[in-house]
Amino acid sequence: MANKHTYQNQKQSFREKIEIFMAFNIAHQLGSLAAAPISDAAGGQTADPTPASTLWKPPMVQANLRCRISSAGNPDLDGVSPPLSPCRSPASALTPIRQDLNVACQALVADPSPAVETDDVVHDAVSSRRHSRKGVPVYVMLPLDTVKPGGGLNRRKAMNASLMALKNAGVEGVMVDVWWGIVERDRPGEYDWGGYSDLMLMARSHGLKVQAVMSFHQCGGNVGDSCTIPLPKWVLEEMEKDPDLAYTDQWGHRNYEYVSLGCDTLPVLKDRSPVQCYSDFMRAFKDQFKDFLGSTIVEIQVGMGPAGELRYPSYPELNGTWKFPGIGAFQCYDKYMLSSLKAAAEAAGKPEWGHSGPTDAGSYNNWPEDVPFFRREGGGWNCPYGDFFLTWYSQMLLNHGELILSAASTIFSSTNTAISVKIAGIHWHYGTRSHAPELTAGYYNTRFNNGYLPIARMLARHGAIFNFTCVEMKDWEQPAEAMCRPEALVRQVAEAAREAGIGLAGENALPRYDEAAHEQILKTALRNDGDDEGLKMVGFTYLRMGMDLFHPENWRKFAAFVQRMADGCPQETWKKVDRAVHETRPWVQEALMMSK
User: Which domain of life does this protein belong to (predicted)?
Assistant: First the structure.
């Protein structure tokens, strides 16, 4: 019993030190960004008065391992047997944290749950959506390639007919990816909004609202990606020069879906930091669409990682690197992430923990019990070293979200437009103690640690909506041996959002046109406890518009689903549905013909 008590004290001590260190780090980064003028919408740049050396001092590392994600069966991935993590030995006494550092960071590490100050305009936009209707509004995701590279809409006539059909079926609006790789493709600071301007005008003409996703990631390599849209050319050029701008796993494989968050505030992209690039893009979007914001464009979803989600690219499907239900792999081996890890370990008084991530965490397609770090009994995840590493790894992700949301909430503060962030629904192995796939993705969620409440509180500081996926899934539909628990996961996230006082929105993770999926979405989205609507979603976005959706039988089921969501009522409303299906038939037929 005494040993257990000592371990808990050590674990708490490490966590307090790493939280203070990370809080100081995010405060420094925010201050640096605030002090550095950001380029104007026209692309003019102002010199950053803060030398890069004061922001980051990466250590010397071995020569870069330059390779892209490898194919399935690569022995480099499947055959590595690294040494054990340094987590089995007792922790030594720690040097007390400096008192001045503790005082400086006290506000940031304090528990924000009692009262969270948010931007009033953004908060009002969310509140009005939550309370202005009895049901839940339904949006529909547009195809990933809605806008052509170089401007213009793909399948314009089909798009026009599709939007008319959606509107007459009772859909509230549509969601569209605003691709960084299309708009700012050729040169930094030069934005081509042509195709998006056409779409906004078309949506307005049909009375549809728009959720605009600031998509700072690559399209291609994730579930459901039907086309390839890379990052801007000039960004890829910089990543070619410095491969450490890409997320990297322990075998040196680079992932080019999204710029590594380890260099968020460094001027590594043509004299701008990634966060400055994202901020400039959002500011240019605001200037371009100022007449649509708050009326047609009612929500800005801020992309923060692969697939637009706040996470690490721990389970890349490209070339078969990862397959469901593998645990994934930690993505902390670029020199910028390693520099932060080294500094955090030194701040915790354990410099030997700062050389790498866990070395016994297996590979992408292992299962938790296959590897020492994630095992139920004696796993490294549940020891002082594991707690230190997972706290640092997840806090880096939270800091990334904090930086971008700080910019987004400021830029859109006067537009009466809601802000949202998408979090991945990683439901496989949720029934285990370690929740390994969530840990490698950056969510420190285990049997003993709530990883979604800190995310919800971070979003709450900026009045942002918690957008979550896998809402359509039931536990029994998933492979039992993988211990998938999507329903329990959704409940945990809903409770975190409610405790933090923010709106919860949902999406289906996979295309589903069956009534069983619709019933599950209705059950989850309309959930409330008596008169308390705190658990009811503020919106639901349906994946995705296309020929399958407009198949006559699928369309009839979808129209019924939309009506029931709008009415806030689980009962069938076939009279309304039959009328909607009849009225939309010409546009559905036209959309199908034009899409071929």
Answer: Eukaryota
Using DSSP, state whether 90 is helix, strand or coil: coil
Q: Which H helix or E strand runs over 524?
A: helix 515-525
Catalytic, 309? Answer yes
Q: Say if CB 462 and CB 122 are below 8 A apart.
A: yes
**How high is the pLDDT of residue 463?**
97
Give the gyration radius of the chain's Cα atoms: 24
Q: How many residues does the chain have?
A: 596
**In sequence order, what DSSP letters do the residues of 250-295 get, joined into one string?**
TT-EEEEEEE-GGGTTS-TBTTB-HHHHHHHHHHHHHHHTTTTBTT
Identify residue 172 by its one-letter amino acid code: E
Alpha carbon 558 to chain centroid, angstroms: 27
pLDDT bin (cut points 50, 70, 90) of residue 570 is: low
Extract the tokens encoding 376.
């139920």
Q: And the tokens for 393?
A: 């790894």
CA neighbor of 111 nearest in space, from 16, 217, 239:
16
- 16: nearest Cα among 391, 401, 504: 391
Whether 260 and 247 have beta carbons less than 8 Å apart is answered as yes
Greater confidence, 178 or 319?
178
Cα separation, 465 vs 235, in Å, equals 29
Active-site pick, 184, 257, 299, 309: 309
Query: pLDDT by residue (tens digit) across 541-567?
Result: 999 999 999 999 999 999 999 999 998
The token pair at 389 is: 């590493």
Show the tokens assigned to 446: 């285990």
Which pLDDT belongs to residue 49?
34
Residue-level pLDDT at 33: 61
Residue 335 main-chain phi, psi, to 5 deg: -65, -25
Of the candidates 472, 487, 507, 590, the residue annotated as catalytic is: 507
65, pLDDT greater than 80: no
Measured CA angle at 139 (ends 531, 148), to 5 deg:
160
Structure tokens at 356: 């790498």
Provide the pLDDT for residue 565: 95
Q: Cα(549)–Cα(542) distance, rounded to whole angstroms?
A: 10
Strands 297-302 and 504-507 come out as unpaired
Instruction: Tell me how far apart the alpha carbons of residues 497 and 132 are, in angstroms, rounded to a whole number.
Output: 19
Q: Say if strands 253-259 and 246-248 run parallel, antiparallel, or are unpaired.
A: antiparallel
Q: How far is it, in rounded angstroms, from Cα 435 to Cα 445?
A: 7
At residue 227, the pLDDT reads 87
* pLDDT confidence of residue 11: 62
H or E segment and range at residue 21:
helix 2-35
pLDDT at 52: 30
